[in-house]
C-alpha cells in the first residue's frame, strides 16, 4: 500500500465507493476516484475545484453575494458587518465604509476560535469540572450541617428539660416540706387529745368506784371535772396550699429555645462566561451579587377580590375608658375578630370585646405610657416604652422585656407575617430616625438611608408603620407629611403625599395599616378622614363623611373590617369599607 494512503484505507469514492480515492472536490466536499472525476465535472450547474486528496481544504470557499448572485464576496464591510462583492463596491453603497479582505477576517476569526478553543479546553472546562466534582461533598455537607444544628437544638432541649425537671423537683420539695409541717401540727394536736382522753378514762373509772363506795367522806370530797373536759383542745386552723399553673407562653418558650439565623444564598459573578448564562431556571444575568430573599409566610387571611364601598359605614363603636384632653386614646390592635387591645397616654392597656366590656387591664412594667402596641401571631401583646428605651411582651399576666436599646428610643412597632418585629426609633439626640427589624432578640435589618445616602425619614418621633402583603414596609411620617414605602430589602419604592387635590402641608398621617388586598390605609387626623392607596401609591379614595373625628390608630380584622381609634372621643369605631 502506498504510504501516503496508509491512513486513508477507510476512505472511499463518494460516487462509486472505490477505496482510497486520490482526488476530492474542494467545493462540493466529496471524494473522487480518477474514473469519477470527469463524471463529477460534467455537472455544470455549479462550480467545481478538484484537487489531490492531500490538498483538500486548501481552496477558499468564498460566500456568494446575496445582492448580486452568483458573484462571490472577497471583501467585508466593517461598517455594515456583511460580506460584499466587486459589484457591491462599484455600486457606491459602501464608498465611505471601511473594507477589508474577507480572508483577513477569516484568519482573525480562526485565531480567535483557536484561542477560545484552547481556553475552553484548558481553563474553563476544568474549572467547571472541578466545581461539579465539589457538589457531592456540598450536598453531604448540607446533611452534616443539618445534623449539627439538630444536635445543638436537641442539646438545648435537654438543657431546658433539665431546668424544667429541676424546677419541678424544687416545687415538689416545697410540697413535701409543707406536708411535714402540716403532719407535725396534726401529730401535736393528736398528742394533746390522747392525753385528755386518757385522763377522761381515768376519771370515769374513779367515778364508777365512787358510785359503789360506802366511804361517805370520800364521796363528799368529790369535785366535778366535766367543765374541764366539755370543750375539745384548741383546734388549729389550716389553709391548704393550692397550685395555680401559669399559662404556657409558647412564643416566649420558643425564644428561650434559641434563635435560628436565616439561610442566605448568594450568587456571585464567577467570571465572564457565567455572566453570559441567560435565565432559563438557572442563574440570572446580573451586574452584582444577588441574594435570595428569606422565606416568608403570607398572612393567614385569604386574598379575596373585593370592591371598595361607595359609602363606607360604621357598623358599631366601643366607648372605651379613654377620652378627653387628659386621657387620650391613641392605639388599637385586633387580638381577634371579637376582641381589641387599646392604649393611650396613660400607663394602662385595656382589652375590650365588641360589647364594650373590659376583659383585661394591664399596666406597663415601667409605669410610663406605651407609645404603641401590636398583637403577635401567637396572641401576645408587644408594646414600645420610650421611657426606658425598651420593647416588652405581655403574655397572660407576665411582662417580659424583650429588647433594651442604647442610644435610641423605640416609638412605634408592628408584628410581621413571618413573626419578625419592625420598630421605628429615633436617636437620643433626636437627629436620626430608622426602622429596625428584629427576629427574636436579634437585630436583623436596619432601614435608614436611600441609595443616594439621604435619610428616608424625618427626625420626628411620630412614625407609625406596617408591613404589606408584598413585604413592603409602610411608614406614616407625620412631620414630613408623607407615607414612605420601601421594599423588604429597604429600597425606596415611593412617597405618598396625598392626592393632587390635597395641599401637602395639610396631610399629617398618623396610624397606618394594610389589608388583604395590599391596599394601604392611613389616618388623616386633622382632616377627619382615612386615605386608601394601593400597593404602588395610587390614591383610591377617602373614608370620610361617616362621623369620624380625629382618627389616630388603625387596625383591620380577618374580614377587612377597619377599627379606628378616635383620640379625643375615646371611641373605637368599626367600619365596613369593602362591599
Overview of this structure, please?
The structure is a single chain. The chain is of the alpha+beta class and 579 residues long. Among the domains are: 83 residues, no CATH class; 30 residues, no CATH class; 258 residues, YVTN repeat-like/Quinoprotein amine dehydrogenase (Methylamine Dehydrogenase, Chain H, 7 Propeller), CATH 2.130.10.10. Helix content is 25%, strand content 29%. It is built from seven helices and 32 strands. A four-stranded antiparallel sheet has the order 9-32-31-30, with no helix packed on it. The longest helix is centred in the N-terminal third of the chain and has 110 residues. The N and C termini lie far apart (96 Å). The N terminus is likely disordered.
Assigned CATH architecture of the domain at 321-578: 7 Propeller
Q: Spans with pLDDT under 50 lasting ≥5 residues?
A: 1-8, 266-303
What is the third-level CATH name, the topology of the domain at 321-578? Answer: Methylamine Dehydrogenase, Chain H
Largest sheet descriptor: 4 strands, antiparallel
- Sum up the overall morphology in one term: elongated
What is the alpha-carbon Rg in Å? 46 Å
Class derived from helix and strand content: alpha+beta
Q: Helical content, roughly? A: 10-25%
Provide a count of the helices: 7
| Average of pLDDT | 85
Terminal residue distance: 96 Å
Relevant CATH superfamily of the domain at 321-578 = YVTN repeat-like/Quinoprotein amine dehydrogenase
Give, in spatial order, the strands making up the sheet with the most strands: 9-32-31-30
Amino acid at each position: 500500500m502506498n504510504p501516503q494512503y496508509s491512513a486513508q484505507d477507510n476512505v472511499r469514492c463518494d460516487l462509486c465507493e472505490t477505496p482510497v480515492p486520490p482526488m476530492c472536490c474542494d467545493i462540493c466536499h466529496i471524494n473522487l476516484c480518477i474514473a469519477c472525476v470527469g463524471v463529477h465535472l460534467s455537472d455544470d450547474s455549479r462550480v467545481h475545484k478538484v484537487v489531490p486528496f492531500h490538498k483538500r481544504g486548501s481552496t477558499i470557499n468564498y460566500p456568494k453575494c446575496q445582492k448580486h448572485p452568483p458573484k462571490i464576496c472577497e471583501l467585508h464591510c466593517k461598517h455594515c458587518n456583511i460580506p460584499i462583492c466587486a459589484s457591491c463596491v462599484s455600486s457606491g453603497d459602501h464608498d465611505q465604509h471601511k473594507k477589508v479582505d474577507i480572508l483577513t477576517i477569516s484568519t482573525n476569526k480562526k485565531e480567535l476560535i483557536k484561542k477560545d478553543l484552547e481556553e475552553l479546553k484548558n481553563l474553563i472546562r476544568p474549572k467547571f469540572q472541578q466545581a461539579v466534582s465539589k457538589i457531592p461533598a456540598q450536598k453531604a455537607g448540607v446533611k452534616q450541617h443539618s445534623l449539627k444544628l439538630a444536635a445543638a437544638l436537641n442539646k438545648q432541649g435537654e438543657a431546658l428539660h433539665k431546668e424544667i425537671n429541676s424546677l419541678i423537683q424544687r416545687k415538689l420539695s416545697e410540697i413535701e416540706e409543707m406536708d411535714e409541717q402540716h403532719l407535725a401540727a396534726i401529730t401535736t394536736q393528736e398528742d394533746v387529745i390522747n392525753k385528755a382522753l386518757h385522763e377522761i378514762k381515768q376519771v370515769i373509772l374513779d367515778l364508777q368506784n365512787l358510785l359503789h363506795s360506802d366511804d361517805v367522806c370520800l364521796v363528799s370530797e368529790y369535785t366535778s371535772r366535766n367543765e374541764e373536759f366539755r370543750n375539745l383542745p384548741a383546734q388549729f386552723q389550716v389553709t391548704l396550699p393550692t397550685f395555680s399553673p401559669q399559662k404556657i407562653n409558647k412564643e416566649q418558650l420558643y425564644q428561650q429555645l434559641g434563635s435560628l439565623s436565616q439561610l442566605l444564598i448568594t450568587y456571585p459573578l464567577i467570571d465572564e462566561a457565567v455572566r453570559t448564562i441567560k435565565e432559563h431556571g438557572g442563574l440570572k444575568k446580573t451586574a452584582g451579587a444577588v441574594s435570595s430573599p428569606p422565606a416568608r409566610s403570607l398572612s393567614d387571611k385569604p386574598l379575596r377580590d373585593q370592591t371598595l364601598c361607595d359609602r363606607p359605614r360604621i357598623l358599631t363603636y366601643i366607648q372605651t375608658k379613654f377620652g378627653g384632653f387628659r386621657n387620650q386614646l391613641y392605639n388599637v390592635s385586633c387580638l381577634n375578630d371579637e376582641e381589641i387591645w387599646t392604649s393611650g397616654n396613660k400607663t394602662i392597656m385595656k382589652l375590650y370585646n365588641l360589647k364594650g366590656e373590659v376583659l383585661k387591664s394591664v399596666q406597663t412594667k415601667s409605669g410610663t405610657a406605651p407609645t404603641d402596641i401590636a398583637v403577635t401571631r401567637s396572641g401576645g401583646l408587644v408594646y414600645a416604652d420610650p421611657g426606658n428605651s425598651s420593647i416588652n411582651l405581655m403574655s397572660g399576666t407576665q411582662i417580659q422585656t424583650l429588647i433594651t436599646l442604647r442610644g435610641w428610643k423605640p416609638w412605634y412597632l408592628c408584628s410581621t407575617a413571618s413573626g419578625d418585629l419592625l420598630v421605628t426609633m429615633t436617636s437620643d439626640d433626636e437627629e436620626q430616625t430608622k426602622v429596625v427589624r428584629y427576629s427574636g432578640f436579634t437585630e436583623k435589618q436596619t432601614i435608614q438611608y436611600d441609595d443616594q445616602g439621604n435619610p428616608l425619614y424625618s427626625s420626628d418621633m411620630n412614625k407609625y408603620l406596617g408591613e404589606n402583603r408584598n413585604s413592603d414596609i409602610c411608614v406614616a411620617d407625620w412631620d414630613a407629611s408623607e407615607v414612605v414605602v420601601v421594599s423588604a430589602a429597604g429600597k425606596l419604592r415611593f412617597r405618598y403625599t396625598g392626592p393632587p387635590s390635597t395641599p401637602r402641608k395639610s396631610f399629617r398621617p398618623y396610624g397606618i395599616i394594610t389589608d388583604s388586598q395590599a391596599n394601604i390605609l392611613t389616618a388623616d387626623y386633622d382632616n377627619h378622614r382615612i386615605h386608601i392607596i394601593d400597593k404602588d401609591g395610587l390614591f383610591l379614595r377617602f373614608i370620610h363623611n361617616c362621623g369620624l373625628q380625629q382618627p389616630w390608630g388603625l387596625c383591620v380584622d380577618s374580614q377587612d373590617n377597619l377599627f379606628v381609634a378616635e383620640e379625643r372621643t375615646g371611641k373605637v369605631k368599626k367600619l365596613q369599607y369593602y362591599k
